[in-house]
Write a structure and sequence with these properties.
It is a single chain. This protein is mainly alpha-helical. Helix content is 75%, strand content 3%. Strands 1-3-2 form a 3-stranded antiparallel sheet. Helix 11 packs across helix 12 and helix 12 packs parallel to helix 15. It starts with a helix and ends with a helix.
C-alpha cells in the first residue's frame, strides 16, 4: 500500500488489534511525517490515540507541524497564482491542470472535501474522453479515502458512460472501486461481479491491491453466486484464477466448496478469519459473508436427498449435532430449507410438494371459479331482461330532465305549427 491508504489501514489495525497496536502506530506516525497531512498527524495525538501514543512512547513534533504548515501555505499560494494566470490566458488545458494540481495538493494534505471540489471544477475544462475519465478517477479515489461511496458509484457510472474509453487500466480501477462501493453497501452479488471483471493490470496502491480484489471478489462470489455462476465466473475464469494466485488459501477454499468438501472449505476460511477482521473494508462484512457461505453449503449438501442423517451431516461440517440442529432450525424458520426435523431420531426430512394433489386442487379451484362466473353472468342477463336495473340518483335526474326538455320542445313546435296555419 502507499499514501493515505497505507496510513488508514495502519491506524485501523492499531484501533482493532491490541497486540499490534504499538507497532502499527509507529509505522502510521512515520507515514504521516513523510506526508503533508498535518491534520491527520494532529488527530492521532490529540483525539484518536492520545493514551496509546503515550504508552508507546510517541510524542507530537510541534516544530515539524509548524514547518510543514508554512511550506504548505506557500505551495498553495503558488498553485492558486498559477491557476489565476491560466484563467487569464483562457487556455482550457492549463486551467484543467491547475484545478487538478490544487486537488492533488489538498488530497495530500488530507482535506478530501476541498480536493473533491477542485477535481469537480476541472470537469468544465475537459476536452476529451480521456480527460473526463481521469477526472472521474480523481473523484473516485478521493471519495474512497473519504468514505463517501455514493460519489464513487455516481462517478464510476459517468466514466463508464463516456464514449471511446479504451484504457484497460482505467476501466480496471473503475470496476475495482465500484466493487468496493457495492461491498460497503452489502450488495455482495454486484460487488462480486465487479471484482471478477477487474483485470490484473490494476495499479491503485492508495486504495486497493490485486490481492484485495482477489479476497473481496472471491468471498463475495462464494457467498452470493449460485453454482453455475461460480463455475463460469470464478472456477473456469482464467482471468480471475490469475487474481486468486494472490490468495492461495481462498483459491483452495473455493475449489473445496465447488467439490462439495464443505468442512475443508469452512476450515480454511476460519483460519483466515483473524487476518480478515483487520482489513479496513472487510471487517464489517466478514461475519455476514461467512454466515452466507455456511448456509449455502448446508443447502447444497441437503438438496439432493429426501432425508439425511444429521450425525453424518454434522461430521461432514465438522460440528456437533446439537449445533447443526440449531442452524437447521434457523434455516427452516426463515424458509431457506424446505424440510422438517425428526429431533428424536436426528433425521432431516425434505418437504416435497405432492404434485398429484396440487394438480387436482388446482383443477377443482378452476372449476369452482368457472361455475361462479357462469352463475353471475346468467343472473346479470336475467336482470336485464326483467328491466331490474338500479340506476344512480344523478343518472335518474338527468334522464327525467332530458325527458322534460324533450316534451317542452315538442309542445313548442306544435304551437309554432298552429300559428303558421
Amino acid at each position: 500500500y502507499a499514501g493515505a491508504g497505507r496510513t488508514q489501514r495502519l491506524l485501523f489495525i492499531a484501533e482493532h488489534s491490541p497486540q499490534h497496536r504499538d507497532a502499527a502506530l509507529r509505522l502510521a506516525v512515520r507515514e504521516l511525517q513523510a506526508s503533508q497531512n498535518t491534520q491527520g498527524y494532529a488527530e492521532v495525538f490529540d483525539k484518536r490515540f492520545t493514551q496509546a501514543c503515550a504508552e508507546a512512547g510517541l510524542t507530537k513534533d510541534a516544530s515539524w507541524v509548524e514547518s510543514v504548515e508554512k511550506k504548505a501555505q506557500q505551495t498553495l499560494d503558488r498553485l492558486e497564482h498559477d491557476l489565476n494566470s491560466s484563467k487569464t490566458s483562457l487556455v482550457k488545458e492549463q486551467i484543467r491542470r491547475g484545478h487538478n494540481d490544487i486537488g492533488d495538493f489538498h488530497a495530500q494534505r488530507g482535506d478530501y472535501a476541498a480536493a473533491l471540489k477542485c477535481y469537480v471544477r476541472a470537469r468544465d475544462y475537459c476536452t476529451t474522453s480521456a480527460h473526463v475519465v481521469a477526472m472521474c478517477l480523481h473523484v473516485v479515489r478521493v471519495s474512497v479515502l473519504a468514505g463517501n461511496y455514493t460519489h464513487v458509484l455516481n462517478y464510476v457510472t459517468k466514466a463508464e458512460q463516456t464514449s471511446d474509453v479504451e484504457d484497460i487500466a482505467s476501466m480496471s480501477k473503475l470496476r475495482a472501486c465500484s466493487g468496493l462501493a457495492n461491498l460497503e453497501a452489502a450488495k455482495y452479488r454486484q460487488a462480486a461481479r465487479k471484482f471478477v471483471e477487474t483485470g490484473a493490470e490494476l495499479d491503485m496502491p492508495e486504495v486497493l491491491l490485486p490481492q484485495d480484489v482477489a479476497v473481496y471478489g472471491g468471498l463475495c462470489a462464494l457467498a452470493a453466486f449460485d453454482r453455475g455462476e461460480l463455475r463460469e465466473k470464478v472456477v473456469n475464469s482464467h482471468a480471475f484464477r490469475t487474481q486468486l494466485d494472490h490468495a492461495p488459501w481462498l483459491r483452495e477454499a473455493i475449489n473445496a466448496f465447488f467439490g462439495s468438501q464443505y468442512a475443508s472449505c469452512l476450515g480454511l476460511m476460519d483460519k483466515a478469519k483473524a487476518d480478515l477482521m483487520l482489513d479496513l473494508h472487510l471487517r464489517a462484512h466478514v461475519d455476514p459473508l461467512y454466515a452466507m457461505v455456511r448456509s449455502k453449503a448446508l443447502v447444497n449438501y441437503f438438496s439432493p436427498y429426501r432425508s439425511v442423517d444429521m450425525g453424518r451431516m454434522a461430521a461432514a461440517f465438522a460440528c456437533d449435532v446439537a449445533a447443526l440442529e440449531r442452524e437447521l432450525v434457523r434455516l427452516i424458520t426463515d424458509g431457506t430449507i424446505q424440510a422438517r426435523i425428526d429431533s428424536h431420531n436426528k433425521v432431516l426430512y425434505a418437504e416435497t410438494a405432492d404434485q398429484r394433489h396440487g394438480t387436482f386442487k388446482k383443477a377443482v379451484k378452476m372449476g369452482e371459479d368457472y361455475a361462479a362466473e357462469c352463475r353471475a353472468l346468467l343472473l346479470r342477463i336475467n336482470m336485464f331482461r326483467s328491466d331490474f336495473v338500479v340506476k344512480r340518483p344523478d343518472e335518474h335526474a338527468v334522464a327525467l330532465g332530458l325527458a322534460a326538455a324533450g316534451a317542452g320542445a315538442s309542445a313548442g313546435n306544435m304551437r309554432v305549427a298552429a300559428g303558421s296555419n
